[in-house]
Amino acid sequence: MKMLVIGDERRAEEFRTRLNHEIIYDNSALDHPEKFSSYDVIADLNGDERNTIANYFSIPNNKLLILCAVKKSLSDMIDDLKPGLLCAVAGINALPTFINRNKIEVSFFREKDKKHFKEFASGIKLEFFEIADRAGMVTPRVICMIINEACFTFQEGTASKDDIDKAMKLGTNYPYGPFEWCDRIGIKDVYETLDAVWNDTHDPRYKICPLLKTKYLRRESFYS
Domain end: 130, 152, 168, which one? Predict the structure, then answer.
């Protein structure tokens, strides 16, 4: 099985580690869609950040396209162009720190695409669970919401960043505290995920804390 991976290098390396499978990393393929036919699987780990995925509509029907589908659902990315989509397509949570896990989250735009992805996953012993095709998926929604709430707590002066991080790790057995996790994911990805979920749901739980927005606009992190 030949696999082409497109996206930022950090995500690509995490993806390579998780799959334990040889991949070809080549971002130039976005400008040369004729390359797609040479691969069995094409994975765009930043697919939900692109203005359009029209180039992927040249992929033949016996191929699998995997897109990060956190900041946009597959429906948002595909719906207007679906008459021209030939290949099978699946959405995954490809935010940094979420790729190299025991099981990955996967969404589908069409029922018929599930079989193709299951065959791919079985071939490389990749465990996954299916979720609804919605912006934010599941784990990113939960973690980013916790980070956002931690920002409100810190902004209000209730506790320091260090104390909040320690409390979350000791109290919930999370691998990182919310501010540590935010820096590991990247404030840009946290902010844009929350913004996508807020625009999708208008649920006040996802309304972005001013402190987080300021850090995002200034391109700052919490600890460095």
Answer: 130
Q: What is the CA 53 to chain-centroid distance, rounded?
A: 16
- Domain assignment of residue 160, given as a range: 139-218
Which of 62, 141, 140 shows the shortest CA–CA distance to 94?
140
Which CATH number do you get for residue 84? 3.40.50.720
pLDDT tens track for 102-124? 899 999 988 999 999 999 999 99
- In tens, the pLDDT along 38-97 reads 999 999 999 999 988 888 888 988 999 999 999 999 999 987 666 678 899 999 999 999
Task: Give backbone dihedrals phi and psi of 65, rounded to 5 degrees, phi first.
Answer: -110, 125
End residue of a domain, out of 107, 130, 153: 130
* Pairing, β 88-92 against β 41-44: unpaired
Residue that has been written with the tokens 């691998």 in this structure: 175
Cα 59 from Cα 30, distance rounded (Å): 12
For residue 11, being part of any structural domain is answered with: yes
Same domain flag for 24 and 90: yes
Local confidence band at 173 (pLDDT 50, 70, 90 cut-offs): confident
Give the three-state DSSP class for 14.
helix
In this structure, are residues 12 and 66 in contact, taking their beta carbons and an 8 Å threshold? no
Coil, helix or strand at residue 72? coil
As a whole number of angstroms, the distance between CA 60 and CA 53 comes to 15
